[in-house]
Structure formats: C-alpha cells, structure tokens
Design a protein that fits this description.
alpha/beta; 18% strand; disordered N terminus; 351 residues
Length: 351
C-alpha cells in the first residue's frame, strides 16, 4: 500500500508540473505577435520613400529658379525622395510643348502661358510669385522717355514673344497708351532674337524679361526700361499636364511640399543673397546683376500661400488674371478655377 501510495503521489506531481509547464507556451504566442507587430511598424516608418526621377523645366531668370534651386540645394527634394533634373527653356509655351512630348514632367511658367492652362492644356499646382507692373524697353527712335509718353509708340516697330508674358506686357503697354496692335508694327520673335533685333536697331522697342532685358539694356545705347501699372495681376506658377496630375498625385504633393519649404526660407529678404548666389552659379551670371532681379516680384512664402488660400486672395489673383485674358481675346469665356488649379495638391502639401 505504501508503494502504491508513493507511486500515485509521484504521478500526481508529474501531471501537476506538466500542467504548470503548459502555461508558459500559451503566454509566448501572445507576446510574440505584439513584438513582431511593433517591429514591423518601426520598419515601415523607417522605410525610405521610393525615389522618383523628375525632369523639371525652368527659364534662366531669378523668378524661375529662386525656390527650386533652394529646394535642391537644401536637400528638400531628397527628403521627399525626388531626384530632380533641371532643363532650361526660353518660355512657357515651349515648356508645355516639351511636356506634351514627354520629355518634361513639371514646369515653371510666367504670366503669359497661364492662358494655356485656362484653355485646358496644363494645370497649376502651386503659385510662385506675383507683381502688378510690367515693363517695356524703348530705344531713342521711339521718342518715348517716360511711361506717360507710351502713345508715341504708334507706328513703331515693336518686338514681342507670342504666347508668353512678353505679349501680355505689350498688350498692357498699348492699353495704357490707348493703342492697339493695329497702331504699331509688331514683330513676333524668340527672346534671343529680340536681343539681336534691339542691338541692331531693327526694332524700336520690345517687351522682354530677365535675362534678355538685362542684355538689351547693357548693349543698347540710350535704351530705357519703363515700368507701367495695369489693373491686371501678373502671376508665375508651377504646372504639369492634366494626365500627369491624374497619375502622379502623390509625387506632385511631395514636390510641392519641398518647394514650400524652400519658399518659406528664400522668400525672406535676409535670405535673398543665398538664392541669388545659387541662381548666379546655375546660369553663370554676375551676382550683382542677379541681385537686381529680386525686385521683379513679390515672392510667396509657404505662410503666404496658406493665408491667401484661406482668405481668398489666391482665388482673386487667378480670377483677375483670367478676366484679363478674356478681355484680351486669349481666352474665350470664364472657366472655373477648379478646372485648372489643383487646390487639393496645394492643401495636402500645406497640411
């Protein structure tokens, strides 16, 4: 009996120990998934964003390069996983043609090319700068010595670049003078040819932008660059094709976010020398000459964009711009801003 009792006691102890031992494996599956899940989240958070290569069009002036060069130099594009290559163009219409041909993804445009956006060829995803005055360069042969004498342009040969801000400026000057295209001898040409035409005296005046205006002023004796005010608003923006926007929403948000960081920094006057130096180096220009271009416009900061979206200023700018194109015959009828401005991209990038 003693042996039987001892045997039963031993069996009971073994079973008890086995039962206790079985509880540990039950706890491990509960702990393991939690640890594994946390590890996966950490890996996901630290995973690098897929790098996207972008071909971006610019024009060789400060207005086009002040923010994009800053974003590139400070690593803001790299932070967003963007590998940006910059390509030089003479004007907005040429850039849009290159996008349609597939060689360019994103572009900066001046005021004149915005009518192509309104007409459906491209879409705006970020405003860059604004100014409310235009300029025309006149030679002594015009008899014009101030903006008050623009009426003397009647009958004169005037060069302009069609479809760009050059044409817009010419129309503005004629409006101020009380003239029309029929009252002058207009010559449409590439901005580089415009420089040669002014230097040779083949034309009496022109509407050009930097850097071409600087070349003309430096090489044409007696030339005057006259500034005049209009009731329009002169905007510069970043654009892409509608199809590209539809297929690359996330890329546009990342690009915009990087630009906004750059704009917040480079729009501040104390940081203009930084942006000017980048621009001068990129275009192989004299720094002092480049500094003059900082007065060409009001440079938007990210804070400006956020505030102007909230109070309706951005809408007002583009509405006034569209009205001007309609009055000038470049746009047939009013188009809702939402048709060609990607407010969702701007708001998501700011948010």
């Amino acid at each position: 009996m003693k042996k039987l009792f001892a045997l039963l006691l031993a069996v009971t102890m073994v079973l008890s120990m086995a039962a206790c031992g079985s509880k540990a494996p039950e706890a491990k599956p509960t702990e393991a998934p939690a640890k594994a899940e946390g590890s996966a989240e950490t890996q996901q958070a630290e995973a690098p964003v897929e790098t996207v290569k972008l071909n971006v069009a610019y024009m060789p002036n400060y207005a086009s390069l002040w923010s994009v060069l800053t974003a590139q130099d400070k690593g803001f594009f790299a932070e967003e996983g963007l590998d940006v290559t910059l390509w030089e163009f003479a004007d907005g219409p040429s850039e849009i043609a290159a996008m349609e041909g597939g060689s360019i993804d994103i572009a900066y445009i001046g005021h004149g090319a915005h009518k192509l956006c309104i007409n459906g060829q491209a879409q705006i995803f970020l405003p860059s700068s604004v100014h409310s005055t235009d300029r025309i360069i006149v030679l002594p042969t015009t008899g014009v010595t101030s903006a008050d004498e623009l009426a003397n342009l009647a009958g004169k040969k005037i060069a302009y670049n069609g479809g760009s801000s050059s044409e817009t400026a010419l129309n503005g000057a004629l409006k101020v003078a009380g003239l029309t295209m029929d009252d002058i001898k207009p010559f449409e040409m590439d901005p580089t040819n415009m420089v040669a035409a002014m230097m040779s005296g083949s034309v009496d005046a022109c509407t050009a932008w930097n850097p071409y205006s600087v070349q003309i002023m430096n090489n044409c004796e007696g030339a005057l660059e006259l500034e005049f005010a209009t009731d329009s608003v002169n905007l510069a923006s970043w654009i892409c094709l509608p199809k590209y926007a539809e297929e690359n929403h996330d890329v546009l948000v990342r690009f915009t976010r990087a630009l906004l960081k750059a704009m917040e920094f480079a729009s501040q006057e104390e940081n203009w020398p930084y942006a000017v130096e980048l621009y001068a180096k990129k275009c192989a220009k004299d720094v002092a000459a480049c500094e003059i271009e900082t007065a060409d416009a009001t440079w938007f900061s990210a804070t400006n964009i956020k505030d102007y979206l909230a109070d309706g200023t951005i809408n007002d700018y583009y509405t006034r711009q569209q009205k001007m194109f309609i009055e000038g015959g470049a746009v047939e009828k009013e188009v809702p801003l939402e048709n060609y401005i990607l407010f969702d991209v701007i708001n998501e990038a700011i948010g």
